[in-house]
Amino acid sequence: MKTRFSIITIFLMGLLLFGCGENLNLIIDETREICIMDQKKYWTEPLKDSIQNSGCIMLKPNSAEIIALSSWFKENQSNWRSNIASFAMPKYSFEYDHYKFRILEKVIVVNFTDEKGEPKQYTQDIDISNFNFLD
């Protein structure tokens, strides 16, 4: 009986710690231009006059890069985890509508305010090589 209780306790704690993944309907419109900030370039290169020279990677409408970004979000709408942790400087970041995205080496973070005005943060583990089109 004690063993069963221990197993159930460990299972419930695992659910509490890791939670169940949620679905986020994050759609990137391929016909819009997006500036993806390359944080390393932004913080290490001298400030320039033009946005293209300040760490911004411009994804043009209907370009292969924006289609790849849009496809990634279409294919990864499930298994997002609510997360309250703070994250270090991302490799890339961008804002889209009322969402803020940060792409780190092993996780992507999305922040937004829900329809009730509550701040939300969700994460999903990633393989950074899926974003090589930004290099």
From TrEMBL:
PROSITE patterns from the UniProt entry: PROKAR_LIPOPROTEIN
UniProt name for this protein: Lipoprotein
UniProt source species: Wandonia haliotis
Domain of life: Bacteria
